[in-house]
Amino acid sequence: MTQDLAEMVNTHPEGWIRAMGLHLSRATADEVTCEWVIGPQHLQSYGIVHGGVHCGVIETLASVGAAAWAMQHGLAVVGVENNTSFVRAVRSGRHLHAVAVPLTRGRRSQLWEGRVLDEEDKLVAVGRVRLLCLPKEDADTVGR
């Protein structure tokens, strides 16, 4: 059984996850899930959830899951691509949840798919995130 990192991530005192009010309910190398209630911090000027929130949620879940797998293999991961499609607009006060699972995992990259769903399990957004697997000592120098 793979280690569940949800509690560790949820108790981190700062960062994007905390700012967005996400609560991870599962965070393993095979699946990452979260939930949140839409608030003013998630909205764009038309009163619907900003697309960047959906992208960020999908990228976050994929990154956590990919990192959980990479750690088991002495590797680190960095995101290289996020392609998210917006399917349905949602407004404040709604409860959303999301799930991400790996589609492929190789020695050098991983591809994860994430889905954001509403209370009725209707698809709100779907995306794929590609992550590069690196030796831990190289991960800190990416982009420098």
Task: Kindly list the characteristics that best describe this protein.
about 140 residues, alpha+beta, globular
For this structure, the quaternary state is single chain
Overall pLDDT metric: 93
Give the termini separation. 36 Å
Strand count, sense and closure of the main sheet?
Answer: 6 strands, antiparallel
Task: Strand order, main sheet: write it out.
Answer: 1-2-4-5-6-3
Strand content: 35-45%
Overall number of strands: 6
Helix content: 25-40%
Structural class category: alpha+beta
Task: Work out the helix count.
Answer: 4
**Inertia-based shape:** globular
Low-confidence stretches: none
Query: What order do the helices and strands follow?
Result: HHEEHEEEEH
Using only C-alpha atoms, the radius of gyration works out to: 15 Å
In short:
The chain has helices at 6-10, 16-20, 51-72, 136-139, and strands at residues 23-27, 32-37, 75-86, 95-105, 109-117, 123-135. It is α+β, with helices and mostly antiparallel strands and 144 residues long.
